[in-house]
């Protein structure tokens, strides 16, 4: 199903009109058209190529998913590839939804690969800023990129919250907690790597759009695009810092495991030393040779007292040193 909008002299004139009427509307120099296609067919691609004169290489990129976020400049239009992001609240897994955007002088065509891209959010942003509609395609592209970058910002903010919660598990006792920290570290690191792949190239996309030679952003819109660019930089820097933080958490987790193992070994060694006392005493008195107190009651009492006293001395000594 295709979504369409017609802006004339900065005012929204029509919604969801037939795609066949686009040519008639574009004959008016004051008109700006938006067309959205979700899961387009080969016939749809052929239609927009004929209608808008799009370059075959740009259409090929739109046909094949998993493109790198980028901005390509052609003689009659620009091609933008971008990704909306979302975070699964249970697994912290990052999901992405790709969108291809063709920007001509008086038209914007968006191609979505699935329903994961919430186009209704973009429409809401356009409707909330009717005073900017007079700037034509620059206004439409701004609302689209603003939604995409805000989604990146929300994703990195959620990942930051998950990492903070993960830090609280670092010093909890129990091997199940250690395994939980390790598993979550790898899950978060995987999501951050995927987020970085879609966020990092967006700096060049937004920066290139603001160049005068692109003829997309006029002077009144420059502060709005600059705001989007600032958000892109913040998300990029935040993502990099979170990657370093996850690495630190993982290293700290390994250190905690090593310290826990050292503590266990210290306790085991301490108890082994205590157990060695009665073993040594009873072993000595168990020899088949005469010794002081041999076959005498006082000899048994003396050996027993030696075991108890030496064991208590070792226990108190280890306890004071916090070895057990």
UniProtKB/TrEMBL annotation:
Coiled coil: none
GO MF, one annotated term: cobalt ion binding
Swiss-Prot/TrEMBL keywords: Cell membrane, Membrane, Transmembrane, Transmembrane helix, Transport
Classification via SUPFAM superfamilies: CorA soluble domain-like, Magnesium transport protein CorA, transmembrane region
Gene3D superfamilies per the UniProt record, alphabetical: CorA soluble domain-like (3.30.460.20), Magnesium transport protein CorA, transmembrane region (1.20.58.340)
Keyword ATP-binding: no
One Pfam family hit: CorA
Protein family (similarity comment): Belongs to the CorA metal ion transporter (MIT) (TC 1.A.35) family.
PANTHER family the UniProt entry points to: CORA FAMILY METAL ION TRANSPORTER (EUROFUNG) (PTHR46494:SF1)
Protein name: Magnesium transporter
Source species: Actinacidiphila oryziradicis
């Amino acid at each position: 199903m295709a979504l369409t909008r017609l802006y004339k002299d900065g005012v929204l004139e029509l919604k969801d009109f037939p795609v066949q009427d686009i040519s008639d509307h574009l004959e008016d120099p004051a008109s700006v058209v938006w067309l959205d296609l979700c899961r387009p067919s080969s016939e749809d691609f052929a239609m927009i190529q004929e209608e808008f004169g799009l370059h075959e290489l740009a259409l090929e990129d739109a046909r094949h998913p998993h493109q790198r976020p980028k901005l390509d400049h052609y003689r009659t239009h620009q091609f933008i590839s971008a990704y909306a992001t979302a975070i699964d609240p249970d697994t912290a897994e990052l999901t992405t939804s790709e969108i291809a955007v063709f920007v001509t002088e008086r038209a914007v065509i968006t191609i979505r690969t699935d329903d994961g891209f919430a186009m209704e959010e973009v429409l809401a942003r356009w409707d909330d800023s009717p005073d900017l509609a007079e700037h034509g395609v620059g206004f439409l592209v701004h609302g689209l990129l603003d939604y995409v970058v805000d989604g990146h910002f929300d994703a990195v903010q959620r990942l930051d919250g998950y990492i903070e919660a993960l830090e609280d598990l670092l010093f909890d006792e129990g091997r199940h907690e250690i395994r939980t920290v390790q598993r979550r570290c790898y899950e978060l690191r995987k999501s951050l790597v995927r987020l970085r792949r879609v966020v990092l190239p967006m700096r060049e996309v937004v920066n290139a759009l603001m160049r005068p030679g692109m003829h997309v952003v006029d002077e009144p819109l420059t502060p709005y695009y600059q705001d989007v660019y600032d958000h892109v930089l913040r998300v990029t820097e935040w993502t990099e810092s979170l990657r370093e933080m996850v690495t630190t958490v993982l290293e700290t987790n390994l250190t905690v495991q090593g310290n826990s193992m050292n503590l266990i070994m210290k306790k085991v060694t301490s108890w082994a030393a205590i157990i060695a006392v009665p073993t040594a005493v009873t072993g000595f008195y168990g020899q088949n040779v005469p010794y002081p107190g041999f076959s005498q009651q006082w000899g048994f009492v003396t050996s027993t007292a030696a075991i108890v006293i030496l064991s208590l001395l070792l226990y108190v000594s280890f306890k004071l040193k916090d070895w057990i």
